[in-house]
Amino acid sequence: MKKLLVMLGVLLVAFTFAFDPTVYVSATIGEPDTLDPHLAYDTASGEVIYNVYENLIAYKGRSVSEFEPRLATEVPSVKNGLIKDGGKTYIFPIRKGVKFHNGNPLTPEDVEYSFERGLLYDPEGGPMWMLWYALFGTHSRDEALEEFVGKPVSEIFDAKTGEPKPEYRQKLIDFYKQVVDPAIEVQGDNVVIKLKRPYGPFMNIIAQSANWAAILDKETCIKIGLWDGKADTWWKWKDMKKEESPLYAWTNGTGPFKLAEWDRKQQKVTLVANEQYWRGAPKLKKVIIWGIDEWSTRKAMLERGDADSIAVVLEYLDQLRGNKDIQIIENIPTLSVTVVAFNWSVNPSSKYIGSGKLDGNGIPPDFFNDIYARKAIAAAINYDALIRDVLKGFGKRIPTALPEGLLGFDPSLPLYKFNLTEVRNNLMKAWNGQAWAKGFKFSVAYNQGNVARQRVAEMIKMYLEMAAPGKAKIDVQPLQWPTFLDATKRGELPVFILGWLADFPDPDNFIFTYYHSKGDYSGRQGENFRKFVSTPRKELGGKSLDDLIEQAAAETDPQVRAKLYLQIQKFVIDNCISVPVYQPLGVRVQRTWVKGWYDNPMRPGMDFYVVWKEK
């Protein structure tokens, strides 16, 4: 309570000004993970990058299928001659007269450098797999490199120095010259991107809202210590850690706003208007994106007018109704899901598995490799009560991690059910009865400030402990957003609650992410998970789940594709690979003086350029 009072005091001191139409305050939850566009893979980071950097094209208004030009002057199409070779060649005429925030002019070489740097950097757990898959049909730099060299990455590089072994050095140079460089070429004022095979979602992947396709300033990137653009050095930057990147907390985009400050202690990002922005200066001159994890503080800020919009806790939405100065926009469509995920082989050094043994004070790292342990969690969530009481109806049940609205969604698939008897029965079967006999202890983690995810974690604790009194000991662990992300990436969390906002509006973006051995979440789910989904199964006709996912992604007939996704989802449900909790319906809460806001389910946050304030 003392901490809360201190925070309220700080806020009251900080916000004592009258209504200012040029300053916008967004009180949200958490803070960015990183501002490096090629590493950021979360909405908190994406919102900042979206407003600071720009892409070649952008989504048009509310549409998720129509595009408009940004740093390219035209959207490629077959009709205008900018898509050729049956969908394998895309030509982007680069806009002239655009300047980066430091005054450097935008050039086609900047575009080429940006794509190449991202592809070669390809950090673990980052978003660049999408561009590797779109351009080359592989899922990572390392997969493409191993295919090119004919050796595992572990044999190509010296483990101590990180440098290539002498016999492979020229191969790495050739990899850049023969694979990466030819895929993105400058031809006069154009940038030409060549795909290995036609890939339908390519323009969705590089449209604005996707920070991984943001355009960087080559000259400045080299000056501050990023890849120098040379063929014989690229590997020196391939394993750069988050905080080591010069772009971790510093930006230089072409967008409507500049980064003024990222105050890590206060979880506060301050943006200022780019007065020389090529589309015209923004109406807002300052934007503050402030991570305020405490609901009552955010609510008080909105009611006083110290915040223009806030992250709402749906459980308390009714507290804001009836205020004539507050606008509530309901039932906003989303392409997002919230899921309870398991790590099937936790990092043994994790502090979230207690003793690391099945002795009543912990669990073994592979505890959730057992299907009955997973099924016990699935039965311990009161889904209907969560949607009714916590989300206030602004959510819907989904059978798997595929949201309604995308090809392959099938409402007739079975849903997991809340059932205390089933919790008990599954716990008694887990680990051949040893989980029940010896007892167990582990943590369930969520990102602090997210009340819906907090309630899910509390349900898991309450109902497991109720079903197995004295045997189940569950700790609920709220973690700051960057800490939460880091812990999942290190494989430390046995059970964690997280969501996924579509990178592009296609079922592969969810199915691949959650269920493929090379999906973004696979590293967080452990080696046993990866073995399970990559092993051929009799019930899948001798194919692995990986095989089916890849087959579905490549299929061009929508009906055939839908049948494949149905088969995939049935297998996922039968094996309780993870637990889909709900698909949210969006709710936005803002002061009535906020004008111009509109929704687009692909956007990672607000587009501050289109917004203004007017009483």
Overview of the structural elements:
The protein has about 625 residues and is an alpha+beta fold. Among the domains are: about 50-220, Alpha-Beta Complex (Dipeptide-binding Protein, domain 1), CATH 3.90.76.10; about 345-585, Dipeptide-binding Protein, Domain 3 (Dipeptide-binding Protein, domain 3). The protein is about 35% helix and about 15% strand. The chain has 21 helices and 22 strands. Strands 9-10-11-1-12-20-13 form a seven-stranded mixed beta sheet, with helices on both faces. Strand 4 (about 85) and strand 5 form a beta hairpin. The radius of gyration is 24 Å and the shape is globular. The two termini are about 35 Å apart. About 50% of the residues are buried.
Features of this protein?
615 residues, 7-stranded mixed β-sheet, 6-stranded mixed β-sheet, alpha+beta, single chain, disordered N terminus, Dipeptide-binding Protein, domain 3
Provide a brief overview of the structure.
By secondary structure, the chain is α+β, with helices and mostly antiparallel strands. The chain is 33% helix and 17% strand.
How is the secondary structure organized here?
Blueprint: H1 2-14, E1 23-28, H2 43-52, E2 57-59, E3 67-69, E4 83-84, E5 89-93, H3 108-121, H4 129-136, H5 141-149, H6 153-156, H7 169-183, E6 184-187, E7 190-194, H8 202-206, E8 207-208, H9 218-224, E9 257-263, E10 268-273, E11 286-291, H10 295-304, E12 309-310, E13 326-332, E14 336-342, H11 371-378, H12 383-390, E15 395-396, H13 420-429, H14 434-438, E16 440-447, H15 451-467, E17 472-479, H16 481-489, E18 495-501, H17 507-515, H18 522-525, H19 527-534, H20 545-554, H21 558-574, E19 579-584, E20 586-591, E21 594-595, E22 612-613
Parallel strand pairs: 1-11, 1-12, 2-8, 16-17, 16-18
Antiparallel strand pairs: 2-3, 4-5, 5-7, 6-7, 9-10, 10-11, 12-20, 13-20, 14-18, 14-19, 15-19, 21-22
